[in-house]
Amino acid sequence: MSEHSSEFDLIRRYFTDGYPHNENIRLSNGDDASIIIVPTDMDLAQSIDTQVADVHFPANAPAHLIASRALRCAVSDLAAMGAWPQGFHLALTLAKADEEWLASFATGLKQTAHELGIALLGGDTTSGPITVITIAVQGLLPQNERLVRSGAQAGDDIWLSGSIGAATLALDSVIHEPARQTEFTQAYYHPQVHIAFGQLLLTVASACLDISDGLLQDAAHIAKQSKVTMHIKAEWIPTAVPISNCHWSRCLTGGDDYQLLFTAPPEYRSRIEAFATTVELDQCQRIGHVIDAAANVELCHNGLPLILATSGYQHF
Amino acid sequence: MSEHSSEFDLIRRYFTDGYPHNENIRLSNGDDASIIIVPTDMDLAQSIDTQVADVHFPANAPAHLIASRALRCAVSDLAAMGAWPQGFHLALTLAKADEEWLASFATGLKQTAHELGIALLGGDTTSGPITVITIAVQGLLPQNERLVRSGAQAGDDIWLSGSIGAATLALDSVIHEPARQTEFTQAYYHPQVHIAFGQLLLTVASACLDISDGLLQDAAHIAKQSKVTMHIKAEWIPTAVPISNCHWSRCLTGGDDYQLLFTAPPEYRSRIEAFATTVELDQCQRIGHVIDAAANVELCHNGLPLILATSGYQHF
Hints:
The structure is a homodimer. By secondary structure, chain A is an alpha+beta fold. A 7-stranded mixed sheet of chain A has the order 8-10-7-11-9-12-13. A 4-stranded mixed sheet of chain A has the order 3-6-4-5. Residues 1-5 of chain A have low confidence and may be disordered. The first copy, chain A, has 10 helices and 13 strands. In chain A, β12 and β13 form a beta hairpin. At the A-B interface, α1, β2, β3, β4 and β5 of A face α1, β2, β3, β4 and β5 of B. β2 (34-36) of chain A pairs antiparallel with β3 of chain B.
């Protein structure tokens, strides 16, 4: 009666060894809960993120790429708070315990965890009709410091950490040829996570978030929570295709790139540019400014209002 | 362009107000991440738990009961570590944003959160073909104290916090008449979470876990991690039906009750009985003892070995 169901074996095999470790972990994997230490001068930032097969990624995409994207998207929320990644818990629902898929998924997860410096603390593997990946991430923040959505002030500049649109424009290729690798699919499967930049922004930004549902829709979150108008100049936005391209508007309304959108007082311009240089963000640009008006997003092109058909990703 | 997708509205409406709060929360809901403070003399215990419709609960069960069970099952892992519940993150995948279902689910979640004293810190709502509920829970532990699976010693008593089997025996009723309420379905939808008892056990137990996959299968986890034989006397186990009942063996191999299974040196017997009285556990009983032999679970009835067809729930 010492036999174990296959679940325990597969968890042990693929989700224990070879992941990053850190000094804040007292206990990880294999008990009812993991245990961490939070240093006395730090707070803990936490976020949870779900990706569903054929909703958020193609079910038949290579598993190591699915893992890369899932973990990067989750950790991006920590970057948007200015937090330093500490650990994550993984809840994985699978139709069957497919060795080959799991081996590939674990390889991608492990590699991405090392790239982002985040430890796997524990998890749960369940059976279900479709693949669902939920990742709960956490990171450390200096006590009482954080980037939030509610601090944008009239007169602030609006900034974008880099070019948007490539990941969204990769979708057709990703759906029809999941294993094909292009510059755009690279942006989709391996979105940059601006961990170091987020921490630098703690000293200058008045508001910040990571763009997951499209620039315009996410800008509206800052507008609403800060009670300001976000005035954005279309010609200043770094995009994957030029404004003359018929796909340009999708760059503004598609999420998927996980660039940071943030606001900061104009006196910090040169400091922000220096930070961007430090972390090698060559397309970090000002894209507009904050106005003292009703919570809204105004998009203009050469001074004229520009209205797009949708503002971003609709979850339901 | 200040419009929002329905997701944001539904999250705001059902998953913000009316949940317990506590002094360790700096920021909850509505930003990229939540932020908590962990007191300097405490560690943070964390666990993640997924329930899939028609795998872990009937899809057509009343939503408030689904919420109750999901949160209780997740928090039970904290009780099994001796931790005090602090907060949780909820990842909810739904086929559609059904107002009535969400209202009922939120009512059950809120009530259960108050019963267990745990705050809702944040979440993610996604669209998918089936309902999947993932809950990441966390609780506080005195620094360097915890109940683990690996500490059982030869000579220790084996204890069970209460009767097992009712929740498993409720399954037929739960599947065919999800809204019917009996003593057994009560055990299924509202499993007791032994939070206070778990904390008392910190001072006496050598190993502990909560039974989610069946007594025998979970006993094997302690056996394996502690490298001991768990010798269990069938006639001592408090069960929902007597040993003469044809369903008795299901009580030992079905999970679902979330009783604590723990080991402790014999000198603590009277203290454990006093603890059980304090928290009103009238069926907390010794069910066997730990033997210095290979990692194994031995079930005996009146001194004779008893072999059951299965040891517990098979996840795949």
